[in-house]
Write a structure and sequence with these properties.
With 403 residues, this protein is of the alpha+beta class. It is 53% helix and 22% strand. The two termini are 29 Å apart.
Length: 403
Amino acid sequence: MLIVKLAWRNLLRNKRRTLLTVMLVGFSLVSLILTDGMVKGMQEKLVGTITQTLTGEAQIHKKGFREELDEKKFIDDPVPIINQIRLNKDIQTFAPRVVFGGMIASPYNINGGVIYGVDAARELGISKIKEALIEGAYLSGSPREILIGKSMSEILEVSLGDRIVISAAEVKNGEISQELFRVSGIFEFGLSDLDNSLGFINLNVAQSLLGLNEGIHQIVVRFKNPENALDPQSSFYQAANSGNIEALSWKDYNPSIASLIGMSNYATVIIGATLFLLATFGVINSLFMSIYERLYELGVAKAIGTSGPELMSLVILEAFLLGVISCIFGSLVGYFANSWFAVHGIPFGTYDFSGVILQGIHTKVALGQFTLLPSCVIILVLVSSIYPSIFAARIMPVDSMRR
């Protein structure tokens, strides 16, 4: 307890220097917390935009379908696969789809696009088609209804209730099949590639248009725990990948985004290393100044029998108390700052990441920001105190008292 009292009094001896050092280390921690919150927020936004817009967290389809969207590579009997998915406790929901390319024509213009035949009720738990609607109503089951993007409606020069015709090739004989629809809704995902080329119709209508009977092209899956989507050893992937059927996660569909997320994980490490390298020099400087101010006192303490290890422990304890105070200050400021930006966002404007449009960044508050990061700071402060403490332990009483 004597060493604790001495360490605390030494910190209070020069309050201005102690306060400046605490602010240096504390604001470094605040910067690291905000950086980590920004990175996690950006990752969550990117993954959410991908998995909740259309792709889902995982997909099952026939091998070779993904590369060319070949309508002829369809699952002709999806019932056993669907029953298998229903029994998997890790799966929250799923939705079957028919996907094909076709020509979309209005009385005024024509445009090529990709048409999705969806189960309207099940699709609500997978994608945000309904939330993206800016005009009209969601699919209700009527055979003539279709949802198109805002950009496509401008290209075709159509609005709600207008007629459009979809032309596509049947999968079995290649004959051209046509179907008349009326625009029942207009959506806007914010992704140009989707808004000007996608259309959504009911699943049974799409199957009839392509002559698929009960066949489908893909089954999109959402997990109860999103982390399971990235585990290739999970029961879902082990059961689904068999024969000519394959199951892939969203990372397989978006390798550029997956690489970006992987690289962004290093941002916190790089920025943190830079910040705390500067903070380390600040701590070392503060400890050395404190030692030089007390050379006479330390020499007297050494002369009356205080050992070198005891002086080392005194300096290290001072650094530890300095680190604890800095972490308390930095964690409190970091929590309020991170929470504020999590609600209001950081206005970075609108930017594009591999086709994903982001408007600003909302930070993410995580437990590790206030447990792991402060622990790393304290360890770093303790490491930075080793050299000053060794210097204090080697002080010669005669030399220091002479000064």
